[in-house]
Amino acid sequence: MSTAPVRPSFLLVHGAWHRSTCWTALREALAAGGWRSHTVDLPSAGPQRTPTAGMYDDAEEITAQLRQLEGPVVVVAHSYGGFPVTQAAVEQADIAHLVYLAAYLPAEGDSLGGIHGHAISGPEEEDLTRTNPGIFDDPRASLYGDLPDDQAEHAVGRLVEQSVRSFQQPVTRAAWRTVPSTYVVCERDQALPPARQEQMSARATRVERLDTGHSPFLSAPAELAALLGDIARAATEV
């Protein structure tokens, strides 16, 4: 007798300057559709030790979380989260699919700083943090441009410091080369330009689009949950 496929769960990996609480609305929308989800807090975001946590520390944290999960997992990376997910998801048997949500989809040797023209030639900056999204003149407009003012102000108020080191460490392996993936282009994104997303999406197995800004988990959680459900079903034939 054949065994029915196990419905996958989601591991949601946040971006820079955020914590896992940013996923609350999406997790509720996923649960309403019968989907289980898990989150991880990346050590590069939030209060820092010395030396500060880097991208490799984030990748190790993702790997540790994956070891605790049973059954197939769809890993969803947002923004900077694409870097440690790309690093961590290599040779992880339970990963059914990768989703890059307005995320960086790097190749070996890429770092976030390098992609933006800020590659370093000297030692890593192990003790520096950015207390706000310094690459943006206006975090409210860049990150949450399609949110009502009160929700956007709340979201901006929850941003945390981010280690500079996490932007300096390059990816040394690329999970998307062996793991099927979907890139979700956010077409009104003011933080990661849609044109750049389109370029990176060429590396993914398939491409989807949302008519949202950079943070659809806040501005369109039900729509995003429905799309993720469709991706998970297609990936595992549930």
Features:
238 residues; alpha/beta; 6-stranded parallel sheet; two-stranded antiparallel ribbon; 16% strand
Describe what you observe in this structure:
The chain is α/β, with parallel strands linked by helices and 238 residues long. The longest helix is centred in the C-terminal third of the chain and has 16 residues, at 221-236. It contains ten helices and eight strands. It has helices at residues 24-32, 55-68, 82-88, 112-115, 139-144, 149-157, 165-168, 194-201, 216-219, 221-236, and strands at residues 9-13, 37-40, 73-78, 95-101, 129-130, 162-163, 181-186, 206-210.
Number of DSSP-assigned strands: 8
The outline comes out as: globular
- Average pLDDT, all residues: 92
Share of helix among residues? Answer: 25-40%
Helix-and-strand structural type = alpha/beta
Helix and strand arrangement:
Blueprint lengths: L8 E5 L10 H9 L4 E4 L14 H14 L4 E6 L3 H7 L6 E7 L10 H4 L13 E2 L8 H6 L4 H9 L4 E2 L1 H4 L12 E6 L7 H8 L4 E5 L5 H4 L1 H16 L2
Parallel strand pairs: 1-2, 1-3, 3-4, 4-7, 7-8
Antiparallel strand pairs: 5-6
Helix pairs in contact: 1-10, 2-3
